[in-house]
């Protein structure tokens, strides 16, 4: 193996430069306040490179770069390393064959994020952590479009809450579940909505203009009347007769105040 010439310069000794040949498996230390290594060719390191200070490099190679690794931290970026990193690529799954592709385009043509897979169809899963909120279009001012390609309806997961008392008080969490069934019996009853404060507390980061809908089903044999509370104002037909249902649209109008628009089925 031919030796490589390495020029060593130490700023502690101004003007002192030594050109030497190195071909060794022994550790090599550069001692000095600002020792530098300069090479005109390629430098190959067969083992691990540990840098205790700042590593500065010029322009990276313009050719494609590929990282082959099977690790939970195959590519990790963060101020604290693998502890709560800003970005992490996990390739630890056995026989991994799925991934994500980010493709840039010319200005005003957008960025495309698509799924890679050895299969024909593949799912994309996006999750917040724990009870964290997933936000889309938080700062952008354009429209949010969904299912333009397939032109199909959205499948939304709802939670059905059945309340069998004559007079019921569905909670904000139950209303956010999407479907409330009221089993009315023995005379007319009421469904009293939460206060505006309770509704705002249940909607994380609520702002004016936020809204959600809930289906109210009267599956009993009496009339159920939707009633508001402090900070929640019912607008529309509040009485829902037996066997009917109503769409309730909750719209935030200010601090702890909500309008509830009720649309009863025919």
Entry keywords:
single chain, 266 residues, mainly beta, Jelly Rolls, 3-stranded antiparallel beta sheet, disordered N terminus
Describe the structure.
The chain is mainly β and 266 residues long. Helix content is 5%, strand content 32%. Among the domains are: 4-38, no CATH class; 159-264, Jelly Rolls. The chain has helices at 172-176, 196-202, and strands spanning 4-10, 17-22, 35-38, 75-77, 87-89, 98-103, 112-117, 159-163, 178-182, 189-192, 211-218, 224-227, 232-236, 239-240, 245-254, 257-264. The strands form 5 sheets. Strands 8-9-11-15-16-13 form a 6-stranded mixed sheet. It has a 3-stranded antiparallel sheet with strand order 2-1-3, with no helix packed on it. β1 and β2 (17-22) form a beta hairpin.
Structural class: mainly beta
**CATH structural class of the domain at 159-264:** Mainly Beta
Strand order of the largest sheet: 8-9-11-15-16-13
Instruction: Tally the helices.
Output: 2
CATH architectural arrangement of the domain at 159-264:
Sandwich
């Amino acid at each position: 193996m031919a030796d490589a010439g390495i020029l060593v310069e130490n700023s502690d000794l101004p003007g002192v430069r030594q050109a030497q040949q190195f071909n060794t498996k022994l550790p090599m230390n550069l001692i000095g306040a600002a020792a530098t290594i300069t090479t005109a060719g390629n430098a190959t390191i067969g083992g691990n490179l540990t840098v205790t200070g700042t590593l500065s490099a010029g322009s990276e190679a313009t050719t494609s770069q590929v990282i082959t690794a099977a690790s939970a931290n195959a590519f990790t970026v963060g101020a604290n390393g693998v502890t709560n990193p800003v970005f992490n690529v996990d390739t630890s799954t056995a026989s991994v064959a799925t991934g994500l592709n980010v493709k840039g385009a010319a200005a005003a043509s957008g960025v495309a994020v698509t799924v890679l897979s050895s299969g024909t169809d593949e799912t994309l899963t996006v999750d917040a952590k724990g009870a964290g909120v997933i936000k889309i279009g938080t700062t952008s001012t354009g429209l949010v479009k969904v299912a333009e390609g397939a032109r199909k309806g959205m499948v939304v997961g709802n939670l059905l809450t059945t309340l069998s008392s004559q007079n019921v008080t569905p909670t904000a969490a139950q209303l956010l579940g999407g479907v409330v069934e009221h089993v009315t019996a023995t005379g007319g009853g009421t469904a009293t909505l939460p206060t505006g404060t309770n509704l705002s507390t249940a909607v994380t980061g609520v702002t004016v203009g936020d809204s959600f809908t809930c289906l109210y089903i009267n599956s009993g044999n009496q009339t159920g009347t939707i009633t508001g509370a402090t900070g929640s104002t019912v607008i529309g037909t509040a009485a829902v007769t037996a066997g009917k249902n109503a769409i309730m649209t909750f719209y935030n109008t200010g601090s702890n105040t909500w309008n509830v628009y009720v649309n009863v089925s025919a």
